[in-house]
Amino acid sequence: MSEADAATEAQRIATEARDRARFEEEALALADQVYRVARRLVGSREEAEDLVQETYARAFRSWRSFTPGTNMRAWLLRILTNLNVDRGRRVQRTPQTQPLEETDYYLANKLASTAGEEALEQEQVVERLSQDSVVTALSEISPQFREVVVLVDIGDFTYADAAQILDVPIGTVMSRLHRGRRALKQKLAEEALT
Amino acid sequence: MTLEPCDRCEEILQDFLDRTLTNEEWAEAETHLGDCDYCRRRYRFEETLRRYVKLSAVERMPPGLMAKLEQLRGLDATA
């Protein structure tokens, strides 16, 4: 190798190391947001920690396949949801059946018919539904619906991002989201009124 | 469409809150919500509920996880 070649090679290595470090910094800055989604996709904090670690291990190994300037949060979540599906498939192969959800006013109507229209006011909602009951209800809806509800309503992803992450059409995201929210309200009604 | 206004309002509730309605549907909802206390309360309830679900469901990263992630830096594809 000539001296000039060696210098070019050294330059290339330095640039790559810098790009990689920058990528890692950017990815780590998103860890809290990645964890937030992971935590609601799986049953326990330990599982969520494992899932996030596996996600970052995979991301750091495949950093070259990330296109700079694209949405890294969505890219990380795509890795995470895929890992989660792989993991889930090992345990549960039979598709879950979901009972037909009630309509969108279901929970509101239930609350109003038990405790009057005032039960729909903010202070009363917070009083009647505990934060634990929300977490429980969320964990009880079927994984396919939960995934979308968690990405959009907890993770603040757009429909388009969620579609990209889950590799499904946007229309599928919308219908799963609507049905998932209804299923959630149905669970909350069961929790709150029994 | 022969749906009653309240049924119609219920049907477009999610899209209203997601801000994905067409201009016509938006106007339709606004008009109905202007005269209908029943739907107005339910829309407000849904908005509150969404905020509350998020508030309840968001859990911070456990202390210590960040350090574990930091240790993964520099992982090589061939490793």
What does this structure look like?
The complex is a heterodimer of chains A (194) and B (79). By secondary structure, chain A is mainly α. Helix content of chain A is 75%, strand content 0%. Chain A has helices at 3-28, 31-41, 45-61, 72-91, 106-115, 122-128, 131-140, 143-154, 159-166, 170-193. In chain A, helix 8 (143-154) packs across helix 10 and helix 9 (159-166) packs across helix 10 (170-193). Chain A is elongated, with a radius of gyration of 22 Å. Chain A starts with a helix and ends with a helix. The model of chain A is unreliable at 90-95 (pLDDT under 50). With 79 residues, chain B is mainly α. Chain B has one domain (5-78). Chain B is 67% helix and 0% strand. Chain B contains five helices and no strands. The chains are: A mainly alpha (194), B mainly alpha (79). At the A-B interface, helix 1, helix 2, helix 3, helix 5 and helix 6 of A face helix 4 and helix 5 of B.
What's the average pLDDT of chain B? 90
Indicate the multimeric state: heterodimer
- Structural category of chain A: mainly alpha
Gyration radius over CA of chain B: 22 Å
Summarize the structure in short.
The complex is a heterodimer of chains A (194) and B (79). By secondary structure, chain A is mainly alpha-helical.
Features:
heterodimer, A: 194 residues, mainly alpha, 10 helices, B: 79 residues, elongated
Q: What's the layout of helices and strands?
A:
The complex is a heterodimer of chains A (194) and B (79).
Chain A: H1 3-28, H2 31-41, H3 45-61, H4 72-91, H5 106-115, H6 122-128, H7 131-140, H8 143-154, H9 159-166, H10 170-193
Chain B: H1 5-11, H2 13-18, H3 23-35, H4 37-57, H5 65-70
Helix pairs in contact in B: 1-3, 3-4
